[in-house]
# Entry
Amino acid sequence: MNGTRLLRSPQGGDGREGICRVVVLGVSGVGKTALTVRFLTKRFIGEYCPTLESVYRYISNPHDDDDIRLDILDTAGQTTTEWKDSYALWADCFVFVYSITEYSTFEELSRLRRLVESSRHSTSLTCALVGNKNDLVYDRQVTVTQGRQLAADMGARFYELSACDWNQVPQVCQLFTDLHASWRRARGMRDSRQRKSSSSAKFKQAIQKVISGKSSTPKRNSLTGLPS
# Structure
């Protein structure tokens, strides 16, 4: 049975027990909270406080070593002028959300992405791009093609869905499952490189000791067998 609980604030430190930290980003009104709550509880909420930030801990199966463990930071609607470096530094993964009915929310994501990259001093991000509110297709201002193009530019997985549509709950869940899997693969590759680097360094140290030992051993006279 999965478990979800509200944390008072983003927690620091390394003792996270394999928990992946996810930050949900986007301007106010795009459906960040609706998307997060839909994943966590399978319920939809239409009204919430747009200035409230919350961190939720989600564990799919506490007794399974291969379970999904997430800390999800649902940020308040932010613009570039309200940006906090702590968002980028706290997170392992990012979900960038826009509304397909408002092109300005789509444009803002490129700026938010640059802020994340600047804060982390890296352009390599594990992230997903989500076009929300695809139930309002008649009000569409952002095409699927535009969404896919931005996702390709970001190196992100692309999803277009509606957090308010019960029939799309599987897509919402798949979004976070895919993100966790990408994080786990990236972490595995990073750990593997670190182990190889450590092994290589130890090997070089061992070789150096052998070489140093040989150079410090006194040479012996081939006739007398005594040190020369």
User: Anything to note?
Assistant: The radius of gyration is 25 Å. The mean pLDDT is 82. The beta strands are 3-7, 20-25, 54-59, 69-74, 93-99, 126-132, 157-160.
